[in-house]
Known about the structure:
This protein is an alpha+beta fold. It has 2 domains: about 120 residues, PAS domain (Beta-Lactamase, 2-Layer Sandwich); about 110 residues, Arc Repressor Mutant, subunit A, CATH 1.10.10.60. The protein contains 12 helices and 5 strands. A 5-stranded antiparallel sheet has the order 2-1-5-4-3. A hairpin with a 4-residue loop joins strand 1 and strand 2. Helix 7 packs across helix 8, helix 9 packs across helix 12 and helix 10 crosses helix 11.
Amino acid sequence: xxxxxxxxxxxFAALGPCTWTEDLxxxxxxxxxxxxxxxxxxxxxxxxxxxxxxxxSKQDLIGRTAEDVFPEPMGAQITAQDNDVLQxxxxxxxxxELHLYAGGREGWCLTWKEPLRNSxxxxxxxxxxxxxxxxxxxxxxxxxxxxxxLTHIQDNLDSALRLPELAQMAGLSGYQLDHRIRNIxxxxxxxxxxxxxxxxxxxxxxxxxxxxSAIALLxxxxxxxxxxxxxxxxxxxxxxxxxxxIVGRR
Length: 250
C-alpha cells in the first residue's frame, strides 16, 4: 500500500457513517442522489428524492425499491436499469431520461449510475444521481427526438454512426442535432460518440478478458491501431496500459 493510499484509508476510517454525501446533496434541489444495495433498495438518499416521490421523510424510502415508490411504468424501468448495473457491473453515464413524479409531473434529466464494491471487490450495490435539465420552449419534443438518437448510439457503438443518418432519425438537420447535443452535454455530436465508445472500451477493458483487437471492433473501430490512437488521445494511456493499471489496483 502506498503512502497516499494509507492516508486515504485513515481519512475515510475517521469519517464514520456515510452521511456527509447526503448532507451535501440535500443542498442541491435540482439533483436526485441515492445509494442502493444489491437488491436495488434505497440505503441513502437526499431530500430532493423524498419530495419527488411525494413522501414526508427519508425513512419512508429506506429499504424500498423504485417499484415501491414510483408510478408505473417508471418504477419498473428504473428497476430494470438498476439490475443492468448490478448484474453486468456496467456504469450508466449521462443517460437522457424522462422521469414521472408524484402528482403527474414529468421532467427530463441526465442520469449517472455506478456499481459499488466492498473492500473485497464484491458488488454490493450502486450509487447514482439524476440532474434536472432546464426547460425551454419546445423542450419536450426536442428531448423526445434526442433521446431516440442517444439510445441508438449507446445500443450501436459497434456500428458506423454517421451524423446525417442520426439527424434524420430525429427529424432534425445535422446542425440542429449537433446544437442540441452541445446545449446539453457541452460537446459536439462527434465528440459525444467518441466519448461513448471510449467509455464502453474502458468498461470492457476493466471487466472482461477480451482481446484489445476484439474490443476495438465492439467499440466501432475498424482496426486496433485506430482504436489505440483514439484511446490514448482520450485517456493518455494505451488500452493495454489502462487495463494493466486498473487490474493492478485490485
